Automatic annotation (TrEMBL), chain A:
Name of protein: Cytochrome ubiquinol oxidase subunit I
Family listed: Belongs to the cytochrome ubiquinol oxidase subunit 1 family.
One GO CC term on file: cytochrome complex
Keywords: Cell membrane, Electron transport, Heme, Iron, Membrane, Metal-binding, Transmembrane, Transmembrane helix, Transport
Subcellular location: Cell membrane
From TrEMBL, chain B:
Organism for this UniProt entry: Paraconexibacter algicola
Keyword Transferase on entry: no
Annotated GO MF terms: electron transfer activity; metal ion binding; oxidoreductase activity, acting on diphenols and related substances as donors, oxygen as acceptor
Keywords of this entry: Cell membrane, Electron transport, Heme, Iron, Membrane, Metal-binding, Transmembrane, Transmembrane helix, Transport
Transmembrane helix as UniProt keyword: yes
PANTHER family, alphabetized: CYTOCHROME BD-I UBIQUINOL OXIDASE SUBUNIT 2, CYTOCHROME BD2 SUBUNIT II
BP-aspect Gene Ontology terms: aerobic electron transport chain
Entry membrane topology: Multi-pass membrane protein
Stated name of the protein: Cytochrome d ubiquinol oxidase subunit II
Length: 468, 348
């Protein structure tokens, strides 16, 4: 492997890993903020215990998200210095704004939330967790705006003298419609991710130890089911319009997602195809297709025209010169299907759980097993979605402006190999530690006898799980 | 002053903010076992930085992001050039975050002991390496004609840069010891006080050696560089008397000034370059590294709006948690905020 391949693997591994954690943080911080709001309003102790239990899981996850986020910020300069030189004038701004407007907010107020239980008036303390949620959302928005610029470079122009992309309008960069869709899609998916965690862990407790803290986990289960169902459905709705938008601005990505070679007025939606994806759809060994559905999804009309790979490749060659402008088809095709498939399964499971559990009934043991598996469904869907977004853009790193192969740092392959091995081993070790800690805390359940906040003079003894 | 100058100063301010704030929490981490003999004492020491270290670290992320936006060429050359050194720093920072966050999430002495050891190593390592990195930026490193880094990782370690590493390490330890003396009670405070006294003379020697070497090697000795050095020197000399007089707040403020003075020395010496080349290519000037005026204008507006807000709520955090941290089991000093009406619905 050369330096380019190693740099791509490193970016892929570190980014996907980071993105396993980010949606959990965004979603769980929102749900924990809602739980604490509920406690503040009703004074019901159950919600205080929910806040603290799910809050502890949030913190365990948050820590690893922050830690891996630091690598994200620096590796543009480290492994992708030619990219950084080319895009810095445009891409750096949302990144810097993310730091100033979002990171400071998240980390400062998270510290206040963890340590402020006994120091802050209840109303202000409640405000701190909402500030954390706001921070995570701002952070997501600015980073998605930066990424959206790579998908659809607006608000900028390439200066022929300096040979780099330069900012023409920050407003255009920050209101890029690709960014708005990506943010909506990410937020709803994040809530579904957090919902699935509540759902899976609560269902496990309900099935495994039905008498243990029954009220606590019944309420948590209901929160999990409702959040998951609503958020997963919302993700699909946003995703539908996002897909239509991408068909307009990144037609090659969407054609690749369908392995659609030939442009068609009545394009069918491929549900499942097996084959090499090499030249033409005829070579697929097996393909289940719903007639005309792709045309409808892409254009809202059953006879809408969808551009195929061959036509787009010809267009790109005319515009950018000879070259291969088709992303890796198998990766694009499958990541798209895995994203949608696991999302649908998750929504179906949440709907089934709500139906089975209506009027206080208990769903069977199979449901608990499915629910635990469901914790992983959004993680798989999120990963697949992110891989689809990034790999569907290849060979471009900035669509139409800069190729990935021209973006890498002029470093020896051994240097990149060293860091790739280092980060991979470190991340693997951290994954083991995080998973063990997360499961241990999840299985233990909430503290049996919570002390009301403010009941003792010893502030540090109040919340053992939340302090150092 | 042009916008490029403004951003050169702002980058210096962000680094100063980072080194001052994370400086004391690196110091607390490095000295962890020297001030805390028992797990409970170490927990007490860590509770002084608990609510703030994460916010402190964001200064680094903003310094990095602002460099990317305002000086892309600098960002690209610096971070790809110092690739392996930076990888080590990043690994240390990651381990440190995990250690601080996870040490108390599981009730097992061995778990805690391992994370505590990790805190020491992962605090001391970046404390040294940031000094090495800055000494390289100012003292010069091999740059190719196209502005990219042309050396290897061993080129980064020279007597001058190692002294730079010792400078940041000793300054941060002194800074951290004074922070602990200011923020704790009981045996931890006593040990931190004794450490601060003992570390003073070696720190002064190392810092003085580094400052003199930097000024002696500088192509142009600027008044501001001399001013920064003088401020750092005066502050360091005044630390010990203040400390002996029991003025812990003042002593901590003085180590803060010393770090700020060192940053002024480094950036004033660097100006108007952002990377000094030891050959074969030319130095990278801030003009050549900068973004367009439009981007710098946007960034200036954002910084002017956001920075006061950030300073306000970060300052508020320090205010909320200003009470001394007591040893476990002796209760907690209450803050006036506790006297405010506490609406805890349904709770005692």
């Amino acid at each position: 492997m050369d330096a380019l391949d190693l740099a791509r693997w490193q970016f892929g591994i570190t980014t996907v890993y980071h993105f396993l954690l980010v949606p959990i943080t965004i979603g769980l911080s929102g749900l924990v903020a809602l739980m604490q709001t509920r406690w503040y309003r009703t004074g019901d102790e159950r919600y205080l215990r929910m806040t603290r239990f799910w809050g502890t899981l949030l913190l365990i996850n948050f820590a690893l998200g922050v830690a891996t986020g630091i690598v994200q910020e620096f590796q543009f300069g480290m492994a992708w210095s030619e990219y950084s030189r080319f895009v810095g004038d445009v891409f750096g701004a949302p990144l810097a704004i993310e730091g100033l407007a979002a990171f400071f907010l998240e980390s400062t107020f998270l510290g206040l939330w963890i340590f402020g239980w006994d120091r802050l008036p209840a109303r202000i303390h409640l405000g701190t967790i909402w500030a954390v949620f706001l921070g995570t959302n701002l952070s997501a928005y600015f980073i998605l705006a930066a990424n959206a610029w790579m998908q659809r470079p607006v608000g900028s122009a390439v200066n022929p003298v300096s040979g780099r992309a330069e900012l023409t309008s920050i407003v255009d960069v920050l209101t890029n419609r690709t960014a708005l869709f990506a943010y909506g899609h990410t937020l709803t998916a994040s809530l579904a991710t957090a919902g699935a965690i509540l759902l899976g862990i609560s269902a496990w407790h309900r099935a495994r130890r039905p008498d243990h803290d029954a009220a606590f986990f019944r309420t948590s289960l209901t929160w999990g089911l409702r959040t998951t169902l609503v958020a997963a459905l919302a993700t699909m709705v946003v995703g539908h319009f996002f897909g239509q938008w991408m068909t307009r601005v990144q037609p090659m990505k969407m054609a690749a997602a369908e392995a659609l070679y030939e442009s068609s007025d009545r394009a069918g939606l491929s549900l499942l195809a097996i084959g090499g994806f090499e030249k033409s759809p005829e070579e697929l060994a097996f393909n289940i297709e719903v007639p005309r559905l792709l045309s409808f999804m892409a254009t809202n009309s059953f006879s809408g025209r969808v551009q195929g790979i061959d036509e787009l490749q010809a267009q790109y060659e005319q515009r950018y010169g000879p070259g291969d402008y088709v992303p890796v088809l198998a990766a694009t095709y499958w990541s798209f299907r895995i994203m949608i498939g696991t999302g649908v399964l998750l929504a179906a499971l949440a709907a089934a759980g709500l139906w089975l559990g209506r009027r206080g009934r208990e769903p069977g043991r199979w449901f608990a097993r499915a629910a635990i598996a469901a914790i992983f469904a959004p993680l798989i869907a999120n990963t697949a979605g992110w891989m689809f977004t990034e790999m569907g853009r290849q060979p471009w790193i900035v669509q139409g402006l800069l190729r990935t192969q021209d973006a890498v740092s002029p470093l020896p392959a051994t240097t990149l190999l060293a860091s790739l091995v280092t980060f991979t081993l470190l991340y693997a070790a951290l994954a083991v530690i995080e998973l063990r800690l997360f499961t241990r805390v999840a299985r233990r359940g909430p503290d049996p006898a919570p002390q009301p906040v403010g009941a003792t003079a010893d502030g540090e003894a109040l919340l053992p799980a939340l302090v150092y | 002053m042009s916008l490029v100058d403004v951003w050169f100063v702002l980058i210096a301010v962000l680094w100063a903010g980072y080194l001052i704030l994370e400086g004391f929490d690196f110091g607390v981490g490095t000295l962890l076992h020297l001030v805390g003999r028992t797990p409970a004492e170490r927990a007490q020491a860590l509770r002084t930085i608990g609510p703030v270290w994460d916010g402190n670290e964001v200064w680094l992320l903003v310094a990095g992001g602002a460099t990317f936006a305002a000086f892309p060429e600098w960002y690209a050359t610096l971070f790809s050039g110092y690739y392996l050194a930076l990888t080590v720093i990043l690994v240390a920072l990651i381990v440190r975050i995990m250690a601080l966050e996870y040490r108390n999430k599981h009730d097992d002495p061995a778990w805690r002991r391992r994370w505590d050891a990790a805190i020491v190593v992962s605090s001391a390592l970046p404390a040294v390496l940031w000094g090495v990195a800055f000494a390289n930026i100012v003292g010069g490193s091999p740059l190719a004609a196209d502005g990219s880094f042309a050396g290897n990782v061993l080129d980064l370690l020279r007597p001058y840069t190692v002294l730079g590493g010792l400078t940041t390490l000793s300054l941060f330890c002194l800074h951290g010891a004074h922070f602990l003396a200011l923020r704790t009670e009981g045996p931890v405070r006593d040990r931190a006080t004794a450490l601060a006294t003992r570390m003073w003379a070696p720190t002064v020697l190392v810092v003085a050696g580094f400052a003199v070497w930097t000024l002696a090697d500088a192509q142009v000795v600027r008044p501001l560089a001399v001013g920064g050095t003088a401020a750092a020197a005066l502050a360091l000399l005044a630390v010990l008397p203040a400390h002996r007089a029991g003025r812990e707040g003042r002593a901590f403020a003085l180590t803060t000034v010393a770090i700020a003075g060192a940053v002024v020395l480094l950036f004033a010496t660097l100006f108007p370059d952002v990377m000094v080349s030891s050959g074969p290519g030319p130095d990278l000037t801030m003009q050549a590294a900068a973004s367009t005026d439009r981007t710098l204008t946007v960034m200036t507006v954002v910084a002017a709006v956001m920075t006061p807000v950030v300073l306000l709520y970060q300052g508020w955090t320090y205010w909320v948690f200003r009470a001394r941290v007591r040893p476990e089991g002796t209760g907690d000093v209450r803050t006036p905020l506790d006297l405010l009406d506490r609406r805890a619905g349904g709770v005692a």
